[in-house]
Amino acid sequence: MLESHKPPLAASGETGWSAVIDIGSNSCLLLVARRRADGSLLVHSDTSTVTRLSEGAAQCGRLRPEAIARTLACLETYAATARALGCTCRAVATEAVRMVADADRFLEPAAKVLGAPVELLSGEQEARLSYLSVALEHPTDESLRVLDIGGGSTELVCGRGREIHSSESHPIGSVRLTEAHVTSDPPSPANLAAIEAHAQRVFAAQRIDPYPELCGLAGTITSAAALGLGLARYERHRVDGSRFSVDQMRALRDELATESSEQRASRPALGPGRADVIVAGMTILLCALQHCGAQTLLVRDRGLRYALL
Fold it and tell me: What's the pTM?
């Protein structure tokens, strides 16, 4: 299941890089960057590899050996990249590790691979960092709504500028709800209805004031944006900052829901690592847009790793 996306280097002649590894439920991400004197972020590279550490974990409460092995192999590659650049490296883990009873079966060998302990973030920390990844570069102190759909959890945060007013890490994600509710390929109308009902029920526990725009982060949303833009391959500079209406996202979700995973995987901007879970992820997105009273999705190619530098 290892599948990488590595954009071109943004600044090959610079030095003084730092590396952050975000070990997520579906993908493992490596950001190499540094802060300029003015506080802006200069990105060397931002790499995503689908390893699906959370495969089956929500059902059995344990990490599968093959999922651990895939993720450790990815970490070995990332550690070598960081060493080659002379980087300091910080690694964090999220819901895939939070949800299981045998976290040390992954955390201990991961620490050996990286040469330093992996920090296990709480849901509250994950939500805060996801929000700050946008807020740190937001030009004003106006209201901000940030949604981060992961494989195992979804963070929804409301605030103004860098001040957070409402923050929740919800136990729903693209992998988690696919495994819980999808019983056919393509998913049946009943499968979609079950995902939607589950997401709506979870979001209902977080009361927020309506706001017309929702900032969306992470692989489900950036992949949907690439598809919505009709890109032949993922282009970060076109995805980041793109905007879509609710109707556009719903039409794309409905189109993808008629295709098999194999058909979705043949779309160059998507690939097999997200093809089987994108429909559940986009259904979560649609429920979040409705819950927030948002008419527009603003896509940001960001994530908690951007707030850790």
Answer: 0.92
